Amino acid sequence: MDDEKRAHLLSFLKVIPPVDFCCVYGSVLHTTNHDKSTMVDYILGVSDPLQWHSENLKMNADHYASWMVLLGGAKLVTEVADKIGVGVHFNPFVTWNNKMFKYGVVRMHDLVQDILNWERLYLSGRLQKPVNMLVDNLDIKDVNSVNLRAAVSAALLLLPPKFTEVCFLAIRPLRITIFVISFVFMQEDLYAKICSLSYMGDLRMFFAEDRNKVKKIVQGQFDLFQSMYKPFLEEYEGKDLLRFSSSENQHANIYQALHEVVIGSREEATKRMQKVLRRTVMVSSARQAVSGLLTVGGVKAARYLTNKMQKAWRSWT
């Protein structure tokens, strides 16, 4: 991301209270996206959401649903996020400087716990995909390496048998240890599987998301996925678990396992992994959907859902 674009994205932070963490994600990172009307998505990490929302309501009350402002203010906003949602409050369709923004506010403690333990696999899932960190006072980029390494391990296990058959992998957040034996796969397949982890069981994927969403994310941000996961693939390569095979087509680069080890039941491990991921994501997506409907207000909720369903419909026709 060039300095001018980064400065433009940072400028929005001047109109809201200070944050400890900020990243942008989504279509704004697609190199092929030149649509200036696209909504810019932010994740904001703060130490105390109640205090932060109290300050933000004084500065930007119009960012919130009017009924929440009138009935409970910052306390209600925070309680709905924590007790109904997954600890994140989103303000979508915020207009500033002729641009549309959406930002989600999360407690830093909750963000770190999700990154390390996949408790909700909500923001940790978002951080498994390319983001651009604009503010990182608590070194979340370094903490997120645990999340990325686990995502690689989980994806290797879940790749179809024709791609994967092995190496020893420990997936810390799910407390799963597996043995894999020889595998051959294309980088794009791996990134697509990583990208899909946080969508497994997501209720939105059944009716309100583009059926080709994962493919579009990976193809639109392939270089960013490469730079994100290169250190972890090289780590496996350095341990003689993977071998990189060059190709003129960078999307077709192949890795192979070099060592054979004793395998437990790969099928059993895969089923367990899928079950845990689907349950976690389904619960989180349902809770956040209900929270979102309550917090953004009827008009904005209908507008957001309509936009999503239109994209989903176009992907099926």
TrEMBL record:
Pathway in which this enzyme or protein is active: Phospholipid metabolism; CDP-diacylglycerol biosynthesis; CDP-diacylglycerol from sn-glycerol 3-phosphate: step 3/3; Lipid metabolism
Q: Name one GO biological process term.
A: cardiolipin biosynthetic process
Q: Which Pfam families match?
A: Tam41_Mmp37
- The keyword Oxidoreductase is annotated on this UniProt entry: no
Organism, by scientific name, is: Durio zibethinus
Q: Give the protein's recorded name.
A: Phosphatidate cytidylyltransferase, mitochondrial
Domain of life assignment: Eukaryota
Under Gene Ontology molecular function, one entry of this record is:
phosphatidate cytidylyltransferase activity
Show the InterPro entries listed in the entry: Tam41
Location of the protein in the cell: Mitochondrion inner membrane
Gene Ontology, cellular component aspect: mitochondrial inner membrane
- Keyword field: Lipid biosynthesis, Lipid metabolism, Magnesium, Membrane, Mitochondrion, Mitochondrion inner membrane, Nucleotidyltransferase, Phospholipid biosynthesis, Phospholipid metabolism, Transferase
- Return the similarity comment: Belongs to the TAM41 family.
- For this protein, the Enzyme Commission number is 2.7.7.41
- What coarse category fits the chief subcellular location reported for this protein? mitochondrion
Its record classes its membrane topology as: Peripheral membrane protein
Question: What cofactor does this chain's UniProt record say it requires?
Answer: Mg(2+)
